[in-house]
Amino acid sequence: MSASIARSAFDPNGSTSDELARKRQWTSERFDKDGPAVQGTSRPAVAGLEVLANHDAVQKNARLGKPLKIGDVQYTRGLFGHAPSHIVVHLPSPGAKPHVRKWITERIDKLITEQGIDLYRQDFNMDPLASWRATDSPGRQGMTEIRHIEGYLAYWDELRRRHPDMLIDSCSGGGRRNDIETLRRAVPLLRSDAIMEPIGQQNQTYGSALWIPFYGTGIGGLDAYTFRSQMTPNLIGVWDMRKRDLDYDTLRRLMGQWRAVNANYYGDYYPLTPYAPGDDAWVAWQFDRSGAGMIQAFRRPNNLDPSLTLKLRGLDPAAMYKVDDLDSGDSVTKSGKELMETGLPIARPIAPAAALLTYERTNPAEK
What gap in Å lies between CA 48 and CA 55, rounded to an integer? Predict the structure, then answer.
């Protein structure tokens, strides 16, 4: 279940087998009764959902140093972050316990309907493998994991059936649930908890774009190299907008460029250089939308080559293309054949640097 809705008792980090057994027993006893309960109380776990519904009030009271009382329980923090122990909700694998899936589906559906929620974010900040293995007998290893996955997909399918226009954000403790079945149902608005650092972001896009058509990350750069390293189809801005000395002119310019090229992320993706983990390489790729597209190229800090030539892909060899450099404003027109066979030279004399170029088909080349 979500870290924003429930905290699982099955966190195996540092737990001994005896501790895991006690947690399983605790959960089993409560789910064999009428429904989930809040840890250490007889209060139903729906209290946790009440905290979610009252998230703003919780945060406001927390800033004032006051708890928020709901029923007979006081809450001092919202469910994003670490929930206080007395509202930890224990949820076993819902596939293994169909009535648990039914319970959480009805509760979340009610909350979505009453609150008018149109974007549902489900995180998974836990490492379940140890508890799955501890639950299964030696000859049945893997069954709890299978039932968990079946249940979680069935839960999402039912929510999507009831709310067909609702978007699901599939964050998972840092992009660890970007599997095909999840991506059929949801999008990773934050593809990984590893954000901001330029080379890491470049490499994430290099790999993610091969498989995932839509994804996002945090962005906070105010120089072209950092900002463009963080560019993805979806951006989550982390600038502190309270700062009056923030360079808003640069931010507006960079955001304007991102908006101008963003549609290209939905085109065909072509890596133009080999994958490179080090800080001494050029890395580049191309997104093509059948007649228009963009090229991103990064000269990393310790690279010694001020230029490189990129052979583009997916173009019409008999057509002409106008290529624009968004930094210099320079334009050049070349045939698709020349761009694919001879290549497009790109120069950045100072490292690190990020080139951003767009191209558009003009007229067919004369024969």
Answer: 10
Residue 40: count of CB within 10 angstroms of its CB: 11
**Exposed/middle/buried for 35, CB within 10 Å: 0-12, 13-18, 19+?**
middle
Please tell me the distance from the alpha carbon of residue 72 to that of residue 47, in angstroms, as a whole number.
10
Distance (Å, rounded) from C-alpha 303 to C-alpha 283?
A: 10
Query: CA 121, CA 216: separation in Å to the nearest integer?
Result: 13
Average pLDDT over the chain reads 80
169-185: per-residue pLDDT in tens? 987 766 778 889 999 99
CA distance linking residue 155 with residue 90, whole number of Å: 17
Under the banding of pLDDT at 50, 70 and 90, the label for residue 4 is very low
What are the residues whose beta carbons fall under 8 Å from the beta carbon of 365, sequence distance 6 or more? 317, 318, 319, 320, 335, 336, 337
Stretch 334-355: mean pLDDT, rounded? 98
The encoded tokens of residue 48 equal: 């946790």
Measured in residues, the chain has a length of: 367
Beta-carbon contacts of residue 269 (< 8 Å; ≥ 6 apart): 209, 210, 285, 286, 287
Is 0.85 topped by the overall pTM?
Answer: no
